[in-house]
Design goal:
Number of helices of chain B: 13
CATH superfamily of the largest domain in chain B: P-loop containing nucleotide triphosphate hydrolases
Number of domains of chain B: 5
Largest interface: A-B, 41 and 56 residues
Helix content of chain A: 10-25%
Number of domains of chain A: 1
CATH class of the largest domain in chain B: Alpha Beta
Structural class of chain A: mainly alpha
Number of helices of chain A: 1
CATH topology of the largest domain in chain B: Rossmann fold
Low-confidence stretches of chain B: none
Number of strands of chain A: 0
Strand content of chain B: 25-35%
Distance between the termini of chain A: 40 Å
Helix content of chain B: 25-40%
Largest sheet of chain A: none
Order of helices and strands of chain A: H
CATH architecture of the largest domain in chain B: 3-Layer(aba) Sandwich
Oligomer: heterodimer
Mean pLDDT of chain B: 92
Chain lengths: 59, 615
């Protein structure tokens, strides 16, 4: 993987109320950035953001 | 900041924006879900403007919202973007004639706001009345970095509409990491430069299945290469970063090098915790810690089955290292494990994990309140301990007097008890500061050898036992002077145990006659509440025996300051949430101890007596 110089780095945090679309936006950004070639969905729990632990838990 | 176009600004938006403001972080507003059938552009934009004010600058507006949302006008590019599929394929078009006026209007506002951030741009703008795209970008870039403006974008993340354009903007206009000063704990700051000493800040540690501990870091300065040695500033431990990964969810891609400003992770470090700095050089930098919010919800926790206790302890410690806002503490005084977190829901998620992932059944219950007991007046008591049922007998008799320790009032030697004057001969004095606060002063006033000096420590021991388990409710006692002034011995039967018991019981009796009071911990509570919920929150606080100390307003919020007994604060976060639909926050810090009102004291005494009988 290539090394990005500091000038080309942007530290971005996605914030927003529950259900505003943070996970989906992250997924689409990764898709647009060609990190992934297929987008997962929140409904099917197949997104990159939730691949380790679920980001939300319905009790 | 992502805004749901069905809802406009929500509770979470408000709370998160306060954090962003506090930490001076630039915000871009992304209005998402414009493709949703309930999406409403006008009301969303209105609520955004109401919340964020003049800083909001519209970069894009949609042509149509709802399921037909497939295009928006970009007033920086002065183009219309049209999306034909759901994979981000886009076409650039000229702005349709019917939207041209609106686009021009937004463009003019945009150019003006951009110009305001730079004097040279301002001049150009005044001369020509317009700015080029490049000039606007420059102005926006300055304004964004200084948090003076909040550019607003249109999105459907789900249908990949507008996402690429947003990313381009972040790349072209968003600030580089090297634009920011990075503060050290000692107040100095370090530039985010690849030429500086290599230094990593650990912002998260997690335990992942099949991998173990994963340490996430940001390169604050310099560059990290594979197999580099670094030293933990806090512990002095040397660590070798044998592998560097870039992370996307569970996917980890190996890197040979990573430079200042980037984030990555490494595995199998020896002892690295969140908020620590790792340096590869002589400068012992320690970057400012992430400040985690104070706990808002406390509960006592125990395993349903005793054999799970040890495992539970381990798991709770792990939970804390992964999520530092979960705090665990064993209270020796209460003999309970106290778990605290951000709210009832937060704790319930942990409970769910313990139950389902780790198969441990746990119980949550309200923590005991660490009451204190003390006295308000002088009292005496005599107690004779005597036991003569076979074998060696036991005999000890103690006469003692107790009075409260009041600050600045030294011990006297003349007392009036039931109209009679008692003059004591103060000989030995011992003074103890109790672990739980307050004092015990112990005076030997024995005359004529009524009790041997060798029994004095035993009497003290008996008194101490009762200080630890107060006579009223079994809570710690404090601030008491004890004068042992008379007693009796038996030439054969007197021993240490006898005097310990006599001392203990004499103290207990005197205590009950000395106007005993229960003290309770009081907390300083600060509630940040939206003005329209003020009434409900206030009356709830009054029901909690709160003393309101002050109120002030700040941007549509009221700050209430109050002193509230801890006993009344259980599950406050849950109540506050439901009173304000989650829009209020609060903090609480220990203040001091105060006498409980008489009715509450009666209730506590009865509860304690009932419990004693049960046992």
């Amino acid at each position: 993987m290539k090394v990005y110089p500091t000038q080309n780095i942007r530290n971005v945090v996605l914030i927003g109320n529950t259900k505003s679309g943070k996970t989906t936006l992250a997924e689409t950004m990764l898709f647009e950035g060609k990190v992934i070639d297929r987008r997962g969905s929140v409904e099917a729990k197949t997104t990159v953001s939730e691949s380790i632990l679920p980001a939300r838990m319905i009790l | 900041m992502i805004i749901n176009a069905q809802q406009g600004v929500e509770v979470g938006t408000e709370i998160l924006s306060r954090y962003a403001e506090k930490h001076s972080k630039p915000l871009i507003i992304a209005v998402n879900q414009l493709d949703h059938e309930k999406a409403n552009w006008e009301s969303t934009l209105e609520s955004v403007k109401q919340t964020f004010g003049k800083k909001v600058v519209v970069i894009q507006f949609p042509v149509e919202v709802g399921p037909a949302f497939n295009s928006f006008i970009d007033v920086l590019k002065m183009k219309m973007y049209l999306f034909k599929d759901e994979n981000g394929t886009r076409e650039e078009h000229d702005i349709p004639a019917n939207l041209k006026d609106q686009a021009d209007e937004y463009h003019q506002i945009l150019a003006e706001l951009a110009a305001e951030n730079d004097e040279a741009l301002m001049e150009t703008f005044f001369d020509k009345g317009v700015l080029t795209e490049e000039e606007i970008r420059k102005g926006l870039s300055i304004g964004l970095a200084q948090c003076e403006i909040m550019p607003l974008f249109c999105l459907s993340a789900k249908k990949d509409i507008g996402v690429k354009r947003l990313m381009e903007f972040i790349i072209n206009v968003g600030p580089n990491p090297d634009k920011y000063e990075q503060k050290l704990k000692n107040g100095e700051s370090v530039p985010c430069s690849v030429n500086g000493q290599t230094s990593l800040f650990i912002y998260k540690t997690a335990i992942e299945p099949h991998i173990g501990e994963v340490s996430y870091f940001r390169v604050m300065s310099g560059k990290l290469t594979e197999a580099m040695d670094v030293v933990n500033h806090e512990t002095g431990t040397k660590e070798r970063i044998s592998t560097i990964f870039a992370v996307a969810g569970k996917k980890k891609e190996k890197l040979t090098e990573i430079v200042a400003g980037d984030i990555g992770c490494s595995v199998k470090l020896k002892s690295v915790k969140t908020n620590q700095t790792l340096n590869a050089g002589p400068k012992e930098w320690a970057f400012e810690s992430i400040v985690f919010p104070p706990s808002k919800f406390r509960t006592a926790i125990k395993a349903k089955v005793e054999k799970d206790e040890e495992k539970l302890g381990e798991l709770l410690n792990k939970a804390h290292s992964e999520d530092p806002t979960i705090r665990v503490e064993y209270s020796k005084e209460l003999k309970q494990t106290i778990l605290s977190g951000q709210g009832e829901h937060h704790i319930n998620i942990l409970k769910w994990h313990l139950n389902n992932t780790h198969k441990i059944e746990i119980e949550l219950f309200s923590p005991k309140i660490p009451y204190r007991e003390t006295i308000t007046k002088v009292a005496t008591a005599d107690y004779r301990h005597r036991k003569q049922s076979g074998g060696a007998g036991q005999f000890g008799e103690v006469h003692l007097l107790i009075e409260p320790v009041l600050e600045g009032v030294p011990a006297g030697n003349r007392f009036k008890i039931d109209g009679k004057e008692l003059v004591l001969n103060l000989k030995g004095k011992e003074e103890f500061t109790m672990d739980w606060g307050g004092k015990l002063e112990y005076y030997n006033c024995i005359v004529g050898g009524a009790i041997d000096a060798r029994f004095m420590p035993a009497i003290l021991k008996g008194v101490m036992e009762k200080m630890e388990e107060g006579p009223l409710t079994g809570s710690y006692a404090r601030d008491i002077r004890v004068f042992v002034y008379d007693g009796k011995m038996h030439p054969v039967d007197s021993n240490e145990i006898s005097f310990k018991l006599a001392g203990r019981n004499a103290f207990k009796e005197a205590f009950k006659k000395a106007g005993p009071k229960i003290m309770e911990p009081i907390y300083n509570v600060e509630v940040l509440v939206p003005s329209d919920c003020m009434g409900d929150v206030m009356s709830d606080l009054q029901n909690r025996r709160a003393m309101i100390e002050g109120m002030s307003s700040d941007k549509g919020f009221e700050i209430i300051k109050a002193r509230v007994p801890l006993a009344e604060m259980h599950k406050y976060s849950t109540t506050l949430s439901s009173l304000t639909s989650g829009r209020a926050t609060f903090t609480m810090t220990y203040a001091d101890y105060q006498q409980v009102p008489a009715d509450v004291q009666d209730k506590l005494l009865k509860e304690y007596e009932a419990n004693e009988k049960d046992e």
